[in-house]
Amino acid sequence: MSIVIAGAAETDEVGRLPRHSTTALHLEAARNALADAGMTKDDVDGIATVGNPGPIQLAHALGITPAWLDGTAVGGSSFLFHVRHAAAAIRAGLCHTVLITHGESGRSRVGASRFGMAADSLAGQFEVPYGVMGPATMFTLTALRYMKATGLTHEQLAEVAVAQRRWAHLNPRAMYRDLITVDDVLASRLVAYPFHLLECCLVTDGGGALVVTSAERARRSPVHLLGSGEAAESPIISQMEDFTTSKAFRLSGEAAFAEAKISHDEVDHLMVYDAFAHVPIYGLEDLGFVGRGEAGAFIAEGHTSPGGRLPLNTNGGGLSYTHTGMYGMFAIQEAVRQLRGEAAAQVPDAEVSVVLGNGGMFASAATLVLANRLP
Amino acid sequence: MKPVPKPTPETQPFWDGAAAGELRIQRCQACARHYFYPRPSCPHCGATEVEWVRASGRATLYSYVINHRPARGFEDDGPYAIAVVELEEGVRMMTNIVGVEITPENLPLDLPLRVVFEQRGDVSVPLFEPAGGAA
């Protein structure tokens, strides 16, 4: 049975949406995705979501009576996990059509959960006492070790933000669209050395939703799920095995490529969750697109930029397009748009797209191989 | 005031050690390997025969960032180093680097360090300083 993404849409707008609650963002995205699929809520018998308000309230608010629920909450990669789990559930006959929703008032914090870790939690005892200030001071911790191990330069790290801005420049929905240079990046204020402001993701409001079902039930040209993989490593960044490579990236990627039975040269388009500028570098290497230590030069040479041979983060990414907090949904949305030929910065003839989602700080990862054709 | 950790039963020996000026970590009696963070069984071999041992307190600088947006309690510190250090026993932990002006030039990776303790309320927190003394 071929599993497909039969509907995909984001909220009408992404960015600053102070008049939308978290729940309203979910619901708007859900309605848009169902409309995109040519379906109604009554076609849906499974629901998956993460964060506020959770699958029970979401289904109830939409008037869906689910026969299958998934509340897997492993960070911004959760939606990729949901796609994988939905595929397994549909193949197993547990349900036939799954709605996956994301909504997050990441910037305006309307109806949003509070931040903060209990003082007796793992992070509360062994990381919070050292003055961490969110992901900008934790996710980033691996970079200096990677730089020492591979020779990646500060300029090459900045090139990641420069390359992604080139894509955002072509995307009217992107929050930041003006082209930038390496000097601009290095002149922006230091957030957490070696990371400057322009090497850190945005914080925005928005949402997105997907309809996953079997190819037989799809009512418009579907995007096929050729393979997927999921993995986890450490719940806190300090315990990551090797700061120069993500085990979860590697394992989820290997599983997805093996199931899809594709080689790297068949991949036309790539999305790598980019909360910070070093993450696409890890993604390129850990998925096997380039060798160890080669990603910085690969990006700096323009291979991932418009016209390059491996278009990467073509919506502008979390660095320039949008980043609500759990960005994975937007990475999938852009891959679907590219495979349908509907992207703002369209890659010519994109047939196979790989999406790598990160959860937490290198804590979880999932990889999807998507295509607009069967092999 | 800087954040104060709240021990749980399985981490209490670590914090008791810190209060006594000792950096304590766990070692598996079955496979003889050290591990951190505190857990009731060995993550390497799964054995539950584990013991608390005093680490030497010697470490090297594995990686870090210099944070320019201070967390609560850190406002008066200026930019500070949030670091991960590798203990001589092979385990890593997060900490702050103290006893040296916090600049990239003063903090080359693999810099030798030694543990010191800072009192926070009724809890003592392990921090690290350059082993050669203040730079």
TrEMBL record, chain A:
The cross-references to Pfam families, in alphabetical order and at most eight, read: Thiolase_C_1
GO MF annotation terms: acyltransferase activity, transferring groups other than amino-acyl groups
Annotated source species: Nonomuraea cavernae
Coiled-coil stretches are none
The Thiolase C-terminal domain sits at 229-371
The record ties this protein, via InterPro entries, to: Thiolase (IPR002155), Thiolase-like (IPR016039), Thiolase_C_2 (IPR055140)
- Name of this protein: Thiolase
TrEMBL record, chain B:
- Which residue spans adopt a coiled-coil conformation according to this UniProt entry? none
| PANTHER family, alphabetized | BLR3430 PROTEIN
The molecular function terms of the Gene Ontology recorded here are: DNA binding
Q: Which Pfam families match?
A: OB_ChsH2_C, zf-ChsH2
Q: What is the recorded name of this protein?
A: DNA-binding protein
Record domain ChsH2 C-terminal OB-fold: where: 52-118
Q: Which residues form the ChsH2 rubredoxin-like zinc ribbon domain?
A: 15-51
> What keywords is this UniProt entry annotated with?
DNA-binding
Domain of life from the UniProt record: Bacteria
